[in-house]
Every structure is written in C-alpha cells, then in structure tokens.
Amino acid sequence: MSETASNQLTRTLDAVARTEDKVHAYRHVLELEARSSASDVDLSKASSPIAGWAFAVKEVFDVAGVVTSGGSQAYEDRVATLDATVVARLRAAGGTLVGTQVAHELTCGLDQPLTRNPWNLSYYPGGSSAGAGVSVAVGSARFALGTDAAGSVRIPEAMTGTTGLKPTWGLISSHGVMREASAPSIDHVGIIARSAAEIGKVLPILTDPDPWDAATLQARCDQDQRPQHNNRIAVLGETTLSALTDAYPLDPEIKIALADSCKVFRQAGAEIVELELPTLPMAVDAIVTLFSAELAWANTAALAKRRDRFNPKVAEMIETGLGIPADRLMDAVRVRSKLQKELSAAFAAVSTHFLLTPTTPRPAMSLAEFDPTQELGTLIPFTCGFNLTGNPAISIPCGQTKEGLPIGLQTVGSHYMETELLDLAMEFQRQTHWHELRCPI
C-alpha cells in the first residue's frame, strides 16, 4: 500500500523545520494550504505516479494568492490570481505544493541570496534555481521546478548532488512564469529531483501542449519518427574543449570525474566518440546578450518607476540591456542559428544523439571568495550553448571533490529525445551511487 499524501507531507515539513534555518531554500512555506491539499489527495485516492509527492517551485512561477516577486523588492506587491500551467497540472495529478523557493533577483545571478549549499554552508549552492536544488538535497521537497536560461536548473543540481533536467525548448509550458524574470527565447522550465527515474515520472504530466503558450504547439517528433537509438555517445573534441578551457579552466577533479563517467558508459556497452562544436565557445557572450536584452524589455517600466528597489547590479544590467546595439543582437542570433545547425550536423556525422560534458568547469566555491558579478560567466560555458540550441540536457551527480563537494555530469540529447536521455541517465545511476549520497545537513 502506498504512503498517504499526508504522511509524505509531514515528513517533508519535518525536513523544512529541521533544515530551513540553515539552508534558506524557501521564500514562502505554504503549510496550511499544503496540509489541506494532501488531505484532499488522500480522500480522492488519486492514482497518479506522483500522487502525494510534495513539491516546490521557484519564486518565478505564479501560485494563486501568493506573492511572486522573482526575488526582487521591485515586485514584492505582485500577487498571482491563477496558478501557472505547470503548477495547476501538478496539483491536478495529486502533487502537494509545499511552497515557493528562493531565486537570485530576477534570475540574473548577480546577488547572493541567503540560500546555502547543504554540503558546506559556506559554499555557493548554484544559481538561479538554488532553492530547488537545495530543497531536494535536504528532503524539504520530493521534487521542484526551476527555470533555466543559461544553466540555472543544471548548475545548482551539479553543486548540490541532485538531478536536473532542462527539456527541449517549448516542451513544457512557461505560461504563468513571471515575464520580468525570464528571457523567453532561451528560458526553459525544468525539473529537479534526486534521480532521473523520479524526473521520468514527473515529466509526462507537464508536456501536453498548452493553448496559452504557443511554443508548446510547435511540431514535435513522433515516437515512430525518432532516430534509432544506438550505443554511441559523444564527448567534445580536443579543439572545442581546448578553446573552452583556455577561457574557462577545467578543475582537475572535474576532468577526472568526466573520464571516470566515460568509463562507466563504456562498461555498459557504449562507444565514446568525439565531435567538434567550433561555435560553442561563443555561446557565453551570445547568451548574456540575449538574456540582458529580453530581461530589460520586460523591466523598463518598473525600472523607471522604482529603480531604488532593484539590486544596483540588476538595475545596471537592465539599463545595459536596453542599450544593446542592433548589430550585437544580430550577432547573438547568428551564433544561436550557427550552433543549432552545427550541433545537429555533428550528431549526424558521428551517428549519435548524445553528448557528455561537465556541467560546470569548477565545483562549488566558497561564498567568501565568489563575486557573482565578476565570475558568474565562469559557471555556464558548458550549459548555456544548449539554451541557444534548445536541446534537452540533464545534469546528474558523477563524483565528489576531495572536500566532499558534488560534481555534475551533463548529457545533451537531440530535440524531443527526453525519454532516451532519461534512459541514459538512469543507466548511469544504476551503475553508480553518486545520486544516493546524502548531504550532512
């Protein structure tokens, strides 16, 4: 007999009470509403795969009657009247919403929110969906939803020892995601859980087309038309990897973890091949340009009325975004188009649909030594390119540093191959134990 939703929620709220004063994952804990919802789920005898699962969402998703400010004082009076599509779908499937979670202000990653890494409280937890990764790591949510415009679902998961999926762009509705805290052309709604198997149960609930989000209505690859799965997996070739690591040095322990992960896949029968993506090193500049411009357009009016309520660095970024010249925007668009074609051609050339990379070039760093305004770009060179291309990508735990900090492995797939990508991640997690490790908090 499955555990009741009320019992699952009680265990989750106990974890909130035990850890929240240390890790600060939540912006709003909705205990009364959650208990009422769990009781309703128990009475309904819901049979969904996620019935009774306690979940949370980044504080950029609308939750009816709750402040959704995107972590900004400039929007602290913004109260949603309706649930975001994804929140409504999870509730309808029997999920229990525990609360909304801390995010960097407007997802920019330029401030340092209170959220702390449960593996070492003096270390960075990743951004901007930091609350999501932390809550799953400590058990104060069974799973969580975040948004990812450059790596914000994958980077916190790499740094907290959890699993995070950024699906194909447009696969999951973003209706009800705070526009002032998103860059629609590169943003993806993503899922964070302890394992790929758990994500595999959540994903189908969220993927039906949504008439309120045109991106979800675009043509999708039917199961019968999908390219045949094979046992080849690519890694970046020496030229591409050298170009990236010259600009963003790869930590030796992460390099070793990547090599060890390749061994795991080889032992499972995979052939590791190399592919080159000459445009990938240009992705950081392109993603910063597009993100800054799209975020700026949405915040123009608020900045003019209440600039003093924005973090000074965020206000400065918005102002810079408003002044980006047209030729720079066009260059960013050209990089996106070129990288999309390049990745598709590279996959075809080596007969694979999957690419392995580190999630980040460096593990979590000490907060005392990390200045996000100067160093945020050093975390995204392996992730942000696939926001430009819209390909699905998942980060899974693949090792630990000598200091006991998690290391993440990113696997990128062809468009709409989430099922196969999750299968690959699940095979890795069947062969390893990294996702089973628990943080000390």
Automatic annotation (TrEMBL):
Residues 11-422 form the Amidase domain. Gene3D superfamilies: Amidase signature (AS) domain (3.90.1300.10). It comes from the Bacteria. Pfam families: Amidase (PF01425). This is Amidase. It comes from Roseibium porphyridii.
